[in-house]
Write a structure and sequence with these properties.
By secondary structure, the protein is α/β, with parallel strands linked by helices. It has helices at about 5-15, 20-30, 75-80, 125-130, 155-170, 195-215, 230-240, 280-290, 305-315, 325-330, 335-345, and strands at about 50, 55, 60-65, 85-90, 105, 110-115, 140-145, 175-180, 220-225, 245-250, 270-275, 300, 320-325. It has one domain: Aldolase class I (TIM Barrel, Alpha-Beta Barrel), CATH 3.20.20.70. An eight-stranded parallel barrel has the order 3-4-7-8-9-10-12-13, surrounded by four helices. It has a three-stranded antiparallel sheet with strand order 5-6-11. It has a two-stranded antiparallel ribbon with strand order 1-2.
């Protein structure tokens, strides 16, 4: 049995400061997951398996990283009907993130701006929480997203990513390398030619060593920004193939404010997510598919607030999709809507 109480809860949550509402929601999920109280947000399951990167995704809709940075609510999110859940970004050491306030709603655009800055409890606490979850034992897939600490010089960023990859590898179905958050100084510079080559080369070498140690191969995906021109996307696509990355996640939040000019909070620093990102994200997905060919795994994320939006991602070239901001505006029913829409087109 499932209920959809989110329409009742949303007015209360939207009257709170966005980060306060965020923390309250996560606390409630953490306390109610794996209990009968999860009926308040549980959604009917839709099976729609797809093979990707050597994995069987139980359906085509996933939870994007960023919501549950400390991996506290994996099972609660799973109850909403996601085929896969991605948690993080986690950094090697705990860090508080940027100064508050650092999250802002733009309701007229169905959007958010955040400059959280990888606030998290660090790798040890993250892995401990992952180990407690039951999600993977239910046949669903868990992605673990890694980032770098703010205090680590950008020249040493690779060190942090190697620590993260080594720490999460045996507990993940796939690992995501986040080099596209706009809220850690200079992080997006890792998407440029030489820096990207160095990072991906080191990651691939470590991945092969870990596969040998743990006697299993865990796919590694790269998450990129929507604010890339055509030439930059082409270079990234080339590097993904060269360094044997297993997939790409497109995209993170945008720095562009073109779609929200004049709205309250539009000039706040940080990454913009939600409806305004849909077109830019789809543009990057289309370019990646052109450069990478039909078989390379692409996870599409950015601006999904309906089943129709999710279908547009698949039509642009994505294999599966993730949602985040749409969940905040529409609630868990969006997961079912998206999964149902994507299953319908997969059967046609």
């Amino acid at each position: 049995m499932s209920l959809n109480l989110y329409p009742l809860a949303r007015p209360f949550l939207f009257n709170l400061d966005p980060e306060t509402a965020h923390d309250l929601t996560l606390n409630q999920l953490a306390q109610t997951q794996n209990t009968f109280l999860d009926r308040a947000y549980r959604q009917p399951w839709i099976a729609d398996p797809v093979q990707l990167a050597g994995l069987t995704f139980p359906n085509r809709v996933g939870m994007a990283a960023g919501l549950d940075k400390n991996a506290r609510c994996i099972d609660g999110l799973g109850a909403m009907g996601f085929g896969f859940v991605e948690v993080g970004s986690v950094t090697p050491l705990p860090q508080p993130g940027n100064d508050k306030p650092r999250m802002f709603r733009l309701p007229d655009a169905k959007a958010l701006i955040n400059r959280l800055g990888f606030n998290n409890q660090g790798l040890d606490a993250f892995v401990a929480n992952v180990k407690k979850s039951k999600f993977r034992s239910q046949g669903r897939l868990l992605g673990l997203n890694i980032g770098k600490n703010a205090i680590t010089p950008i020249e040493r960023a690779t060190d942090d990513y190697l620590i993260g990859l080594s720490g999460v590898y045996e507990h993940a179905d796939y690992v995501t390398v986040n080099i596209s958050s706009p809220n850690t100084k200079n992080l997006r510079s890792l998407q440029t030619d030489e820096a990207l080559d160095q990072l991906l080369s080191a990651l691939n070498e470590r991945k092969m060593a870990l596969a040998d140690t743990h006697q299993k191969s865990v796919p590694v995906f790269l998450k990129i920004a929507p604010d890339l021109d055509d030439a930059q996307v082409a270079v990234i696509a080339q590097s993904l193939v060269k360094h044997q990355m297993d997939g790409v996640i497109a995209t993170n939040t945008t720095l562009s404010r073109d779609a929200v000019k004049g709205m309250p909070h539009c000039d706040e620093a940080g990454g913009l997510s939600g409806s305004p990102v849909l077109a830019g994200s789809n543009r990057v997905i289309r370019l990646l598919r052109q450069h990478l060919g039909p078989q390379f795994p692409i996870i599409g994320v950015g601006g999904i607030l309906s089943g129709y939006d999710a279908v547009s991602k698949i039509e642009a070239g994505a294999d599966v999709v993730q949602i985040y901001t749409g969940l905040i505006y529409k609630g868990p029913a969006l997961v079912h809507e998206v999964a149902k829409s994507l299953k319908q087109i997969s059967q046609n």
